[in-house]
UniProtKB/TrEMBL annotation, chains A, B:
It comes from Sphenostylis stenocarpa. InterPro entries: Gfo/Idh/MocA-like_OxRdtase_N (IPR000683), GFO_IDH_MocA-like_dom (IPR055170), NAD(P)-bd_dom_sf (IPR036291). This is Gfo/Idh/MocA-like oxidoreductase N-terminal domain-containing protein. It comes from the Eukaryota. Transmembrane segments: none annotated. Residues 7-126 form the Gfo/Idh/MocA-like oxidoreductase N-terminal domain.
């Protein structure tokens, strides 16, 4: 059987994150770097030269030109969120499969425009939430799904913060209301909310209430915020995200029988291995002066880093559509949309003075 | 110089926790087990025999009789919270120093009755929050107070849960409205709130809002709950406590420059050593595929377990009053009262349908 040809990627925009994902495309067995487009042809050329594109790669001075290249199968789109609806819809119309940076959209209405375009053109949509593709994530999920080891999820806390420098806080697209109006909520909060939904088997919470005093910059973009999420069955979640605190990224999930701790869930400490801590039926000694068992550390190795695994999974789905007439996989846009719904609810709660917001699917 | 005589302890009540603290009194260099009192003389005798009391120890068939023993310097009082105000006030009136189990009282009004009695009788009041006395706690505080390593606290999450068995959920005093009406909030939540206040240098939050859907038993006692706390300066805290989830006890404190993680803050995994994780100015490599530095693990050894250190610190203060005419140390009742104020605020928020409650000192 002949080997399936690689999926040819076009990178739409030269954002910093595009460097990492271009390297990931180069690493992913099922993908190949085919083209890069920027509003400046010089910038595109410099980007291609610096980021492992082959000599044969196409370099375009506009996004439209890249999207018109019939050899491009799929695009990776790291544009500012405010531009997603325009360019992702156009890409879908041009029959390009879309790997879209998170947050997918500024709100679920825009999200729905994007997914409608992808569905009507038969192209795959996936967001750029890399940690979903690390083998550690499925190992953690096995633990959370194990009635004997973890039981039922009862509470979960997630956080993601990093201490942005003065240049970031002044100039990064993520602090600009016309580019990434969701600020830290869309950037860092997206991961926290995805982790909560992931742990809750993507069951949407009933009620979302933002924490008081989120920090905003002078033009009203969120620099830090958080929320509490409640489900009908009594499960609760809290999260906090920030551009103003030391780099931290935790999931603490507590079930009736077990506990999961992970401290580097978005970007693992190391590229080739990652760990988490699992505890089951923890308890004290008779006099309650120490624990009888401690959480166990689980280490998961991976030869291919998570961003390349993401690209490869996306390329696998695209190849299945291209060569086997498969339908686009609904799982990825479905969980993206749920994440977007909860992001929207947190934003709405902040805007309504921290009122409870009911989630409606 | 003659050695200062040991402080003679009377244990008022034979609750399960009294076993641990009796052992701690025996271990504490400045303290001695002198007497135990129970409503049943047989129970008191059996307790003394089983818990390392010397043959000379007094055994009383009522709490009053123990409090009338002129040789008792100090009492340890593990009675149900609903009985604290009666017996702690009587103990103070009898000039006994009072080491009182937490929660100190059912509400701050009762707390104030207890502290007024202690102050007017010149006796020391301290609550039984053992982890405050572990040397790890002061090491963690050094880290949190270090402007270069931790910066300013911005967010903190704490939790404490344990999976109570059917017998506990049916019969323990902590699920009885007439004995420990604060349930999981007073028992497990007390630690979570103390940890938050401790990390915030005991600055009271401005606003407390309980999480929705706390779990209550059939007679209305809290089995699980949580809250968000906000300060004027934008700091935020969240906590969750439960009798219905796997044993878990974390502090995750994030500052502008550093992060603290500890997973066994109330009862250390081991009796003779305990650890925490500290990170400072954490960051990624250039391509954001891994961290350039990981949190460092700090291990603190102690020959004497934290409960004995607590007893010893209490005995030191009592000895200073008894032999050196010192005044009672205000630090301990002050932080107890602040903890009680926040416990009350969470309770009030639950009772008012999760409305924000302003804290007034």
């Amino acid at each position: 059987m002949a080997e399936t040809p690689k999926i040819r990627f076009g990178v739409v925009g030269c954002a910093d994150i595009a460097r990492k994902v271009s390297h990931a495309v180069a690493l992913a067995p099922k993908a190949a770097l085919h083209a890069v487009g920027s509003r400046s042809i010089n910038k595109a050329s410099a980007f291609a030269a610096a980021n492992g594109f082959p000599a044969s790669a196409k370099v375009y001075g506009s996004y439209e030109a890249l999207l018109d290249d019939p050899e491009v199968d799929a695009v990776y789109m790291p544009l500012p969120t405010g531009l997603h609806v325009r360019w992702a819809v156009l890409a879908a119309t041009k029959k390009k499969h879309v790997l879209l940076e998170k947050p997918v959209a500024l709100n679920v209405a825009e999200f729905d425009e994007i997914i409608a375009a992808c569905e009507s053109n038969g192209v795959q949509l996936m967001d750029g939430t890399m940690w979903m593709h690390h083998p550690r994530t499925s190992k953690m999920k096995e633990f959370l799904s194990d009635a004997n080891r973890f039981g039922q999820l009862r509470s979960i806390h997630t956080n993601f913060s990093f201490a942005a420098d003065a240049d970031f806080l002044e100039n990064d697209i993520r602090v600009k209301p016309d580019l990434d109006a969701l600020g830290a909520l869309g950037d860092a909060g997206w991961y926290c909310l995805r982790a909560i939904l992931w742990a809750a088997n993507y069951e949407l919470p009933k009620t979302v209430i933002a924490l008081r005093n989120p920090e905003l910059n002078q033009v009203g973009v969120i620099l830090s915020c958080g929320a509490t999420l409640c489900w009908e069955d009594g499960k609760v979640a809290t999260f906090h995200c920030s551009f103003l605190s030391n780099l931290t990224m935790d999931i603490t999930a507590v079930g009736t029988k077990g506990t999961l701790h992970v401290h580097d869930f978005i970007i693992p400490y190391e590229e080739k291995e990652a760990s988490f801590y699992a505890a089951t039926e923890s308890g004290f000694d008779d006099l309650v002066t120490k624990w009888v068992s401690q959480p166990s550390k689980h280490i998961i190795k991976t030869d291919i880093p998570q961003e390349a695994l993401m690209v490869n999974e996306f390329a696998r789905l695209v190849a299945d559509i291209k060569f086997n007439n498969a339908r686009p996989e609904k799982k990825w846009p479905t969980i993206s949309r749920k994440t977007q719904l909860v992001v929207d609810a947190v934003k709405a709660s902040i805007e309504r003075g921290f009122e409870p917001v009911q989630i409606q699917e």
